[in-house]
Design brief:
Blueprint: H1 2-21, E1 32-38, E2 41-42, E3 47-55, E4 67-72, E5 76-78, E6 81-83, E7 89-95, E8 101-103, E9 105-109, E10 112-115, E11 119-121, E12 125-133, E13 136-138, E14 141-152, E15 162-167, E16 171-172, E17 179-180, E18 186-194, H2 195-199, E19 205-213, E20 217-227, E21 234-239, E22 242-247, E23 255-259, E24 267-268, E25 274-276, E26 281-290, E27 295-304
Length: 307
Amino acid sequence: MHRAAALLALALLSLLSVSCDKGTPIAPSGGVLRVTVTPDRILADGEATVRAEVLRANGNPVSSGTEVRFSTNLGNVTPGIAYTDANGIALASFRGDGRIGTAKVIARSGSLEATSDDIKVGSFPSSISLLATPSSVPETGGEIELLVLVRDDQGNPLAGTNVNFAADKGTLESGGRFLATNSAGEATDLLEVTAADISTISGDSFTVRVEASGSSVLSQSRTISIQRAPRANFTFARSLLTVVFTDTSTGNPTDWFWQFGDPGNNTSRQQNPSFTYPAPGTYLVRLRASNATGASEAAQFVAVTGN
């Protein structure tokens, strides 16, 4: 009876020993583990090949069937556990899960661990260009078409990027909500600016801008000029009977008409003319400054002494 029990125990021990000998091998300590992913740039739901190479300390491949475990911070690796071939190579597949970002694949076998180079998943907005048409509006108001083009870091148009237009003044057709770029990488909006909007601007311009989110926030702005009617004004300097006139009108006039008030009714269309009077006296000089938006006049008495 005791002999039979002893024999049974020996048989169990033998089975356990065989089972342990046939367990899945792992890389021996002191070895080398390398992992690469090809290609290193995929679409958000794209796929790449993961290759792990496991070597012994002497540079020879590990035993065929050595276990390698894979993990990643973004996306999925399948299978999560792979086994080396006769050359110490274990293969798996990396696939994006729809998220955009930078992934790394980690391979482990025994005490060995290796991390792949960065894998770019999806396309990142890298540059934006904003076009505003027209680039100026009259002080009575108007509409401005806004167009943005978004490109990735390879210079290709990028579809599906959320962009946001904004303006210092006026009302956007989008209401300021996010818009997605089309297949050409473009998104458009329309800005309406009224005379009441412009009346609150002390200067001669305001700003429109657009933002897009990538690895960081990208933005670009454009300055919109206000086409104001000129406000005529001038100064003068006298030297004997000659007077030099200097235009100081605001509102960017493009045309000037001077009347010097002399008996000969002389005039000039120069911006900064000079005129020699025939005799001392006081003359009423008028300037009419105009542009495409409108015109205004200014007048001053000029006393000429001849001394």
